[in-house]
């Protein structure tokens, strides 16, 4: 049995989970999420807990068992607490601000970079060099944060660019002065 897959998911009081037509619907105080469920995985809701099972012990079924348990757990956590990622902007004159539904960034290019904010995602800039990406879908929050990071990834010589908060960038040594004899 999958170690992760066999753990039941306890549901908080305000969360409702139901399965219709092979789709799992999770409803909570922060919003609603849905995901299609594999036909190789069974789902039962008993006594405020979600219990997942699998049809056979093949390798693919074992991997799907743990995967869907983790995905449903992330959905339950998302509709109760939500997820967030923090990005830092490093560089002289680099800054970001939210203007309506667009994240406007000055990153040393000859033009400002405008990133449209997708539905279901909230972006804040508490400081000009910080970006907070938050939402209820863990995958979407991570993907949007990575798309923003890829606009100007941190470079290894001076460390300029957009990085995750607390991310360590291994710096390279630049060219050294040529010595004369």
Describe the protein's architecture and organization.
With 181 residues, the chain is of the alpha+beta class. The protein has 2 domains: 9-80, Outer Surface Protein A, domain 3 (Alpha-Beta Complex); 83-164, Outer Surface Protein A, domain 3 (Alpha-Beta Complex), CATH 3.90.930.12. The protein has helices spanning 59-80, 138-149; strands spanning 9-10, 16-20, 23-28, 31-36, 41-46, 49-54, 83-90, 95-99, 102-106, 113-116, 121-124, 130-135, 161-164. The protein has a 4-stranded antiparallel beta sheet with strand order 11-12-7-13, covered by helices on one side. A 3-stranded antiparallel beta sheet has the order 1-6-5. A hairpin with a 2-residue loop joins strand 2 (16-20) and strand 3 (23-28). The model has no long low-confidence stretch (mean pLDDT 92).
Summarize the structure.
The chain is of the alpha+beta class.
Q: Beta fraction of the residues? A: 35-45%
Number of domains: 2
What multimeric state do the chains show?
single chain
Mean pLDDT, nearest integer? 92
Return residue spans where pLDDT drops below 50 for at least 5 consecutive residues: none
The run of helices and strands is EEEEEEHEEEEEEHE
CATH level 4 superfamily of the largest domain: Ribosomal protein L6
Q: Which architecture of the largest domain per CATH?
A: Alpha-Beta Complex
Number of strands: 13
Helical amount? 10-25%
Major sheet, described briefly? 4 strands, antiparallel
**CATH level 1 name of the largest domain:** Alpha Beta
Strand order of the largest sheet: 11-12-7-13
- CATH domain fold name of the largest domain: Outer Surface Protein A, domain 3
Rg from alpha-carbon coordinates: 22 Å
